[in-house]
Amino acid sequence: IYCADVGAFSEVVLAQERLTGRMFAVKCIPKKALKGKESSIENEIAVLRRIKHENIVALEDIYESPDHLYLIMQLVSGGELFDRIVEKGFYTEKDASTLIRQVLDAVNYLHRMGIVHRDLKPENLLYFNSQDESKIMISDFGLSKMEGTGNVMSTACGTPGYVAPEVLAQKPYSKAVDCWSIGVIAYILLCGYPPFYDENDSKLFEQILKADYEFDAPYWDDISDSAKDFIANLMEKDPAKRFTCEQALRHPWIAGDTALCKNIHESVSRQIKKNFAKSKWRQAFNATAVVRHMRRLQLGSSTASSADANTPSRPRPAQGNQSQLAPPQNAPLPVTLCSLASAASSSSPTGVELNRPHPSAVPAPVLTETK
User: Fold this and answer.
1) Which CATH number characterizes residue 14's domain?
2) What is the spatial distance between Cα 102 and Cα 112, in angstroms, rounded to a whole number?
3) Is residue 210 part of a domain?
4) In the annotation, is 222 catalytic?
5) What integer best gives the mean pLDDT of the chain?
6) Catalytic annotation, pick one of 83, 95, 119, 212
7) Number of domains, the chain
């Protein structure tokens, strides 16, 4: 067994089955780390046991020892979505459409099963293998939820920047939140930067709550109207009017031939490298701290809005004359809202990711909790 990742609560190792030689990823979780948080891992296991789809990382088996719980997971070795796009020499709208179709197909399957992922984002999309035509896989079901009676949830969870307005507004929500997140991912895949960004947290949340985004020139000049229409229907503020996965799968940009084949690799990859530095991808904050912070921002939002009325709220994407690996100063940190209501001092123990940077490389949190 070879250690692949060590986290605060668990580690992921690469393991080989002796009888067959097959390789697996094993999530090793110390039971002492689960005390008081058993419901979280039970939820993840319950969800993973139910699902079987070619574009979703599968739970193969579970083993238990006196001190540890071992989740035997399908090995996905093709790397992260952004890395693969940057490495490509040729990338088109059609490539993005193919990626999004696979995500929609998998999420539509989840929704038919009554499961909401609640944390769809590019770093949870992995390639199955290193082949050029590899399929994309959805991973990390630590925040997923099986819908109950009434199909309504209310726990603040997800990653601001990808999370739907109704979640930030702390309103009851349903599977439509996943469709919003897919719209945000599609937006990024076509330009390389996020639709919502501001170094001021209050303004960032305000943009999301209002669905205030643009198709900025010149970054969107060569993108088809069909792609823009597809994104607009998913990033619809009103969840009742927002496209479902089934509607999105029927859109011409997915099911037809409206996705363009023009090479947009240079522009998109340049923006990805500037706006999504790896050290900023993987920060997690507990729900209590974030919700308290959001409430404080709401209390001061009217004052802030009037004071900043004449200040531009949407900085431009990073420009080409900047260092390609330097993240822009105006890009927000992707903050994770964990679903554990009891997590007053730690993030979810199930959110294990491969290739996590050393803690010293991670910037200081933007959102903090004052006691």
Assistant:
1) 3.30.200.20
2) 15
3) yes
4) no
5) 73
6) 119
7) 2
